[in-house]
Design a protein that fits this description.
337 residues, alpha/beta, six-stranded parallel β-sheet, three-stranded antiparallel β-sheet, disordered N terminus, binds nicotinamide-adenine-dinucleotide, binds (2S)-2-hydroxybutanedioic acid
């Protein structure tokens, strides 16, 4: 009796996820790269994905052939620019994750990537506007503070911008923050949630440690804030010229993609993730995009959460973040004009 009812509930769950999954083609642009490969691997394990479409200017068919042997239900296809590959990759996509572009080397800022990555993101946005304008777009390519405005402006030019469906991926900042705080406080990171707001580079990354419910000394606050703001540099230095965070980013990107899928096709309520989105919070100061926790719903961004109560220390951090963010956003907007 127990076995039968358990079997039934397993079957019911399967048929739900199968019907939801039929709608969920996920495209990864930059799929053969350091992030793209492990991200695609994690997405292949996701039962909410029906079709994984892998695009890169090189090597995507090889990555697709390899991942395609994994015995989960989704189909995998690989595409390069030949034979209308980008069109094939994007058509009918529900979620498009974009880690295309060059990574940092030691001594570089994310803004130093602008000259190369801005045009990559603009060109991918132009194709997305044409082939899958209604998809949800998750932008990983740096500098996120500028590539998100570039993507938005390009979509606007094509008349298809939907601010509810464009997300700068800042998940890695909260993943790191949780890990770093847990290390200092000797806790399990699963019990440590840290809200991080602002943008995704240096001083624009603002952790709200006062909202964790934990006590910090001034030294801990300074050290943790610095480590969260400059966590990316730790990896860039350790990789010593061979790239930046790829594996932790793949983990974070897969988490964000799954949250979008759960909220938009899985019907799950109360899904909250941080993301750099079109936001009114600092719009009066010329900052059109800002990362805070957002509530996801069937259409994408459903509600942008405010900053909540923040300390004087955090107000000071925000006052440094806002002008820098403004500069990054203006640079992106101007490039796209
Ligand atoms: P990588 O060089 O290993 O991979 C990038 C891939 O993009 C390559 O395979 C390349 O062929 C591909 N590519 C280049 N131009 C393309 C185009 N026009 N269309 C499709 N694919 C194209 O780099 P990576 O380590 O995977 O990093 C990728 C980007 O992600 C970098 O800009 C990096 O700074 C950024 N990043 C962001 C975060 C974040 O938190 N948002 C974290 C880590 C890295
Ligand atoms: C990160 O935060 O790890 C990424 O933005 C990559 C980088 O350049 O640091």
């Amino acid at each position: 009796m127990f076995a039968t009812s358990r079997l039934f509930s397993v079957a019911a769950k399967r048929s739900f996820s199968t019907s939801a999954a039929n709608l969920t083609k996920v495209a990864v642009l930059g799929a053969a790269g350091g992030i793209g490969q492990p991200l695609s691997l994690l997405l292949k394990e996701n039962p909410n994905v029906s079709h994984l479409s892998l695009y890169d200017i090189v090597n995507a068919p090889g990555v697709a052939a390899d991942i395609g042997h994994i015995n989960t239900n989704s189909k995998v296809t690989g595409h390069t620019p030949e034979n209308d590959g980008l069109k094939e990759a994007l058509t009918d996509a529900h979620v498009v994750v974009i880690p295309a572009g060059i990574p940092r080397k030691p001594g570089m800022t994310r803004d130093d990537l602008f000259n190369t990555n801005a045009s990559i993101v603009r060109d991918l946005a132009t194709a997305a506007a044409k082939y899958c304008p209604n998809a949800h777009f998750l932008i990983i390519s740096n500098p996120v503070n500028s590539t998100v405005p570039i993507f938005a402006e390009t979509m606007k030019k094509a008349g298809v911008f939907n601010p509810k469906r464009l997300y700068g991926v800042t998940t890695l900042d909260v993943v790191r923050a949780s890990r770093f705080v847990a290390e200092v406080k000797n806790l399990d990171p699963k019990d440590v949630k840290v809200t991080v707001v602002g943008g995704h580079s240096g001083v624009t990354i603002v952790p709200l440690l006062s909202q964790t419910g934990l006590e910090f000394t001034k030294e801990e606050l300074d050290a943790l804030t610095h480590r969260i703001q400059f966590g990316g540099d730790e990896v860039v230095q350790a990789k010593n010229g061979t790239g930046s965070a790829t594996l932790s980013m793949a983990y974070a990107g897969a988490r964000m993609a799954n949250s979008v899928l759960e909220a938009t096709v899985g019907g799950k309520k109360g899904v909250v993730e941080p993301s750099f989105v079109k936001s009114d919070i600092f719009a009066s100061e010329g900052v059109e995009y800002f990362s805070t926790n957002i509530e996801l719903g069937p259409e994408g961004v459903e509600k942008i959460q405010g900053l909540g109560e923040i300390s004087a220390y955090e107000k000071e951090l925000i006052s440094k973040a806002v002008p820098e963010l403004k500069k990054n956003i203006v640079k992106g907007n101007e490039f796209a004009q």
